[in-house]
Every structure is written in structure tokens, then in C-alpha cells.
Amino acid sequence: MTLSRIWAGLVGIVGLLSILTAFQHWFDLNSIELQRGIVGNSVAGKANIRADVGGIFLAIGIFMLLASWKRSAHWALATLLLILSALTGRLLSLSIDGIGTGILPPILIEMLFAGMMAVAWRLWSEKVPEGL
Known about the structure:
- The chain is mainly alpha-helical.
- The protein has one domain.
- 81% of the residues lie in helices and 0% in strands.
- Helix 1 runs antiparallel to helix 3, helix 1 packs antiparallel against helix 5 and helix 4 packs antiparallel against helix 5.
């Protein structure tokens, strides 16, 4: 088994976990409040959690699955950019608001996943281009 194949399996597993996290943001808002400190105080607030937070987890998960299945550098890079956009928001919040309860674990997880996708991008950039 090659490193590329092992990495594809790892990326696929994390992609599935990301999709499960999206479902949690859609259907179990009470646990999100406890775990992440995100509160939907109104119908609009709940809709924003489902759309914005759940949506990015779903997109990351789908992109990871596509990257994994095709071993595609293009999908790996797209996933990396999504993760880095979320990480940018967290680092901006850290610089504006300072360190608070629960802020560091998601930052570390996103850094880990960004690194994982950077490795995937590098690994899968070596194969013959897929075409357009």
C-alpha cells in the first residue's frame, strides 16, 4: 500500500467526520451550544448556524471525499483553502478578543487538517494531470 493510498484513506475518514459534524450543526443545536459556545437565540440565528457553520463543514467534507476518491491535488487545494479561511477567522478573533475558553482546540485541529491537506496536495500533485 502506497503513502498516497493511505493518505487518501485518512482524508476520506476526516471528510466523513466533517459531514457528520455538519449534520450535528443542522439537527442538534443544543449540543453545539454546549460544545462550541454558539447560540442561536432566534430563528434567524439558528438558520445562520445551520447555513454558515454547517455549510462550511459540509463543503469541507464533500471536498475531502472528492480529493480522497480521485487523489486530486485540485480538490485537496480547494479543501485547504476552505480550512484556511476558517482558520483565518479564528486567528482574527484571537487577535481581537484574546484567548478564551475553548478557542485553542479548534485552532489546533484546523491547523492539523490544513497540514494534512497540504501534504495531500503535494502528494497528489505528482501524478499526471486529470484534465479539465
